[in-house]
Amino acid sequence: MNVYFYVQPSQIESNTVRLQGVECIHATQVLRLREGDYCVATDGCGHRYELKLVSLTKTEAQAVIVHSESFPKSPVLRGVAMGSLHKKDRIEWALEKAVELGVDYFYIYQADHSERARWKKSRLDQIILSASKQSKRTWFPELILADNLEHIKQDAHQRCEGIDLNLWVAHESASLHTKQPEKLKEGCNLFFIGPEGGFSTNELSWFERENIPRFLLGDQFTDGGVLRAETALITILAKYF
User: Fold this and answer.
1) DSSP string, the chain
2) In contact, 88 and 108? CB cutoff 8 Å
3) How many whole angstroms separate alpha carbon 106 and alpha carbon 193?
4) What is the mean pLDDT of the chain?
5) Which of 50, 76, 121, 191 is deepest in the core (most CB within 10 A)?
6) How many other C-beta atoms lie within 10 A of the C-beta of residue 37?
7) Quick one: pLDDT at residue 180?
8) Do both 175 and 105 map to the same domain?
9) How many CB atoms lie within 10 A of CB 132?
10) Domain ends where: 70, 96, 128?
């Protein structure tokens, strides 16, 4: 079975798993699975389950766990903080691709040059769920909506308590010799990416005060080399995939 299902930890009791809501509908009405069929599910917290369906109703599919695997979280975590973009389809696309490329933390923040102030978190969470299932991830990434850069740094320190927090910012003002790190360090590695219009003077000053190094994504021999926000995100994450 090539389809991945998602079960919340609360839907797992001893050796029994309950597929509910859209997951149940997908299993019974779309895939037309029947009692005795096998499928695979994850709880998004590092566990994968091979299941055998034993009972089906319109609202719930019950299964027993035939085999389970646990996957430790990587000691090298990847995060991105992207300034809110005006067109929602662009940031939704960027979020989907970031999940496929293994991002662990995805911040959307209200930058000085951002035009879109509000996002529907439930919609973005659904994109994360869909992309995580599609790419068969066992650890689902976290989405954090932040007010500003300082909020991101404070939140990241709390989430990464006990491990190193390594911060970088992608910006065309970086020296031609300052490139993206060749290898990520153990701990949480967080990359700041600006919105349309780039970082403001105040935001660039904040990076200076916080001693957050800038690096250049383009090449000194490339004509142009300034990337859109979503292209910068893909370029960063793809290097470490």
Assistant:
1) ---EEE--GGGEETTEEEEEHHHHHIIIIIS---TT-EEEEE-SBSEEEEEEEEEE-SSEEEEEEEEEEE-PPPSEEEEEEEEPPSSHHHHHHHHHHHHHTT-SEEEEE--TT-------HHHHHHHHHHHHHHTT-SB--EEEEESSHHHHHHHHHHHTTTS-EEEEEE-TTS-TT-B--SSPPSEEEEEEE--TT---HHHHHHHHHTTPPEEB-S-TTSS--PPPHHHHHHHHHHHT-
2) no
3) 11
4) 90
5) 191
6) 16
7) 74
8) yes
9) 21
10) 70
Number of domains in the chain: 2
One-letter amino acid at 126 equals Q
Note the pLDDT of residue 173.
72
pLDDT digits (tens, 9 = 90+) for 219-232: 655 555 678 899 99
**pTM of structure:** 0.90
> What digits encode the pLDDT tens for the residues 156-193?
999 988 899 999 999 877 665 576 788 898 999 999 99
Question: Is there a single domain that holds both residue 136 and residue 169?
Answer: yes
The pLDDT assigned to 52 comes to 96
The boundaries of the domain holding residue 105 are: 76-239
Whether residues 102 and 18 share a domain: the answer is no
**What letters, b where the CB count within 10 A reaches 16 and e where it falls short, cover 70-99?**
eeeeeebbbbbbbbbbeeeeebbbbbbbbb
Say yes or no: 149 and 195 in one domain.
yes
Same domain membership, residue 97 and residue 43: no
